[in-house]
Specification:
Elements: H1 3-15, H2 27-35, H3 40-53, H4 57-66, E1 77-84, E2 90-97, E3 107-113, E4 142-146, H5 157-173, E5 176-186, H6 188-199, E6 206-210, E7 237-243, H7 251-263, E8 267-273, H8 283-296, E9 305-310, E10 318-319, E11 322-327, E12 334-341, E13 344-350, E14 352-359, E15 370-374, E16 377-382, H9 388-398, E17 407-412
Parallel strand pairs: 3-4, 3-5, 5-6, 6-7, 7-8, 13-15
Antiparallel strand pairs: 1-2, 2-4, 9-12, 10-11, 11-14, 12-13, 14-17, 15-16
Length: 415
């Protein structure tokens, strides 16, 4: 080989880059893209990349359970925002984030539902959120103060959609402890807190209704007209406070409700404020008890026993990993009670034609058969396959790292 040829080969080597495997984003970067997607196109792209990158569904599950990368460069302090729905309804809210917010920590969240829902719609700006909430800046929690008004009471469908939507938006940006999200309400807000306990408990670790009344939910005139099924409170925890001399909802009017809670062995604390009126003047004295109650109540995302009653198979029909899909008679209530032991599900169903079990890979061994017996008859025995799309759907439904499902098992009851 001549000197000139050697020189030419050396030049070619210097000019040609080394060929190696293409660099791909790490798993947490891909999960973060999904968590922060702002459009259907961004979501679809992130989902496709996650499925391509994950060697198997169990790995994908672990990535999603770990969650996204949260950053410290996020708004802190008191912020006023609003959700705009597809029909143009504007739902304002205030979020209070501690100035000490650390993205490496998972923070508890408390939603505070105000009273006086018969007022006109709140205007942007000003102090519609009521004075005093700046005190939450000192708490090591994220506090949410949403708005209700005369066209959107707390116990109506718009708010049932609104509160979880606000929570989802916060989870996309802030590191939130999924199992320590609490719902507190005062007066009409207390009544609204009862509504979520009875009808839509999925997101909440405990319910704290102050000077409200669950009976309001039964009234058609109040915009409710709901049947209240105490079976739906069996897995709930409530901290209830009413004033002895409250002119609207005196403690004596709540006592029959409390007696049912006692008889059903439903977890609750009931406090009567001696000589108390329709106010929260008692709050400073009770704060230590309230804090202790919240501290001791953490949501169990996968309880082994569930019970749920629904009278609408398209609304308020889910409790944790159980969803009622079809009632035998529309408008008439149906009940499903499930006990799970490993891969075995024992179900008592009344007035229900179909339901779905949402399955988590840490609770179910997908390498073994799953068995479902309903009212003494075995309706399913077989292997259930996990599905990446189902798993990703569960993420985008809740953005909840503790409520991930990699399979859905639908069971139809014989006529």
């Amino acid at each position: 080989m001549t000197l000139r040829m050697r020189h030419l080969l050396l030049v070619l080597c210097l000019m040609t880059p080394a060929v190696g495997p293409a660099q791909t984003p790490d798993s947490q970067t891909l999960v973060t893209r999904l968590w922060q997607a702002r459009s259907g196109e961004e979501s679809s792209s992130a989902r496709a990349d996650l499925i391509t990158a994950a060697p198997d569904i169990n790995t994908l599950y672990q990535w999603l359970k770990t969650g996204p990368t949260y950053v410290g460069d996020v708004p802190r302090g008191r912020q006023e925002g609003a959700r705009l729905t597809a029909d143009g309804t504007r739902f304002p809210y205030v979020v209070v984030v501690p100035e000490s917010y650390d993205p490496a920590r998972a923070y508890p969240v408390e939603f505070m539902l105000h009273g006086g829902v018969s007022r006109p719609e709140w205007e942007a700006g000003g102090d519609w959120w009521r004075r005093g909430y700046d005190g939450f800046l000192e708490l090591e929690q994220i506090t949410v103060v949403p708005a209700a008004w005369d066209e959107n009471f707390w116990w109506q469908a718009g708010q049932a959609e609104n509160l979880p939507a606000i929570l989802r938006g916060l989870k996309q940006r802030y590191n939130i402890d999924d199992n320590r999200v609490y719902l507190t309400g005062v007066s009409d807000g207390g009544t609204g807190t009862y509504f979520f306990a009875f009808k839509q408990p999925l997101h909440w670790a405990a319910f704290l209704p102050y000077i409200g009344h669950p009976g309001v939910l039964r009234s058609v005139q109040s915009g409710g007209g709901y049947a209240l099924y105490f079976e739906n409170l069996m897995d709930r925890s409530l901290f209830i406070v009413n004033g002895e001399k409250d002119p609207l909802y005196p403690a004596s009017s709540i006592v029959p409700f409390i007696e049912v809670l006692k008889e059903a062995n439903i977890d609750h604390e009931f406090t009567i404020i001696a000589d108390g009126g329709h106010n929260t003047n008692w709050l400073p004295e009770q704060q230590a008890r309230i804090d202790a109650f919240k501290q001791s109540h953490v949501r169990e995302p996968f309880p082994e026993h569930l019970i749920w009653v629904a009278d609408d198979d398209s609304l308020y029909n889910r409790n944790a990993w159980l969803r009622i899909d079809r009632l035998q008679s529309p408008g008439r209530p149906g009940l499903v009670e499930v006990d799970r032991s490993g891969n075995e599900f024992t179900v008592n169903a009344q007035g229900v034609a179909g339901f779905t079990l949402l399955l988590n890979p840490e609770e179910i061994n997908f390498n073994e058969l799953v068995r479902v017996s309903v009212n003494g008859a075995t309706l399913f025995t077989g292997q259930v396959l996990q599905d990446a799309e189902t798993l990703l759907n569960s993420v985008e439904r809740e953005y909840d790292r503790s409520l991930l499902y990699s399979a859905e098992l639908s069971v139809q009851l014989p006529d």
